[in-house]
From TrEMBL:
<keyword id="KW-1133">Transmembrane helix</keyword>
<keyword id="KW-0472">Membrane</keyword>
<keyword id="KW-0812">Transmembrane</keyword>
<dbReference type="InterPro" id="IPR023393">
    <property type="entry name" value="START-like_dom_sf"/>
</dbReference>
<protein>
    <recommendedName>
        <fullName>Polyketide cyclase</fullName>
    </recommendedName>
</protein>
<feature type="transmembrane region" description="Helical">
    <location>
        <begin position="7"/>
        <end position="25"/>
    </location>
</feature>
<dbReference type="InterPro" id="IPR019587">
    <property type="entry name" value="Polyketide_cyclase/dehydratase"/>
</dbReference>
<dbReference type="Pfam" id="PF10604">
    <property type="entry name" value="Polyketide_cyc2"/>
</dbReference>
Length: 177
């Protein structure tokens, strides 16, 4: 019985430390990746402003070719929405919230299964040799300790998807011209 008591005591201390440590973890997260693309902003922007085009470069669509996609709202404009259902990639919705022609597409994401949302932007900046494209997504979680640890790992969880998506976008834009 002494060993069981010690084990329960250790488990209890670990749980208390897990919860106590979470108070020092920020609720906010930000994931950002950047790539140089040898194409003009006007050659890149159509792939970003049209949510139907995201399936050509977004990694989630490539990982689940059976993903069910629906689009609504005005095409390539503020209010354009995409909704998806996927057994492997999860369910979600995205809506364009702000646009700056050939420069910036801002969006809102929502994942109903987790009741979690974020906002993001794809920015296209002209350079001497083409364009610098930055993809950033930001959000905040509640005070649930598990969610705060989840936010802490967000960059390592979706950052590689952003990198691969930007690489796909680079290939599309550079080969389109």
């Amino acid at each position: 019985m002494g060993a069981l008591k010690k084990l329960l005591m250790v488990v209890g201390v670990v749980i208390v430390l897990f919860v106590a440590t979470s108070f020092f973890i920020p609720k906010d997260y930000s994931v950002e990746r950047t790539i140089n693309i040898d194409a003009q902003p006007s050659e890149i922007y159509p792939y970003v402003v049209d949510l139907k085009e995201w399936k050509k470069w977004g990694v989630w669509f490539k990982r689940d070719p059976d993903m069910k996609l629906d689009y609504s709202g005005p095409d390539r404009a503020i209010g354009m929405r995409s909704e998806w259902l996927s057994e492997t990639e999860g369910n979600g919705e995205m809506e364009i919230t702000q646009l700056e022609h050939n420069r910036r597409v801002m969006y809102r994401l929502y994942f109903p299964d987790f009741d979690m949302g974020s906002s993001g932007v794809v920015e296209i900046e002209p350079t001497e040799n083409g364009s610098l494209v930055t993809w950033r997504d930001e959000g905040s979680v509640d005070n649930n300790p598990i969610n705060k640890y989840f936010a802490l790992m967000m960059d390592s969880m979706i950052g590689p998807d952003f990198e691969m998506g930007l690489e796909n976008l680079k290939i599309l834009a550079e080969n389109a011209g």
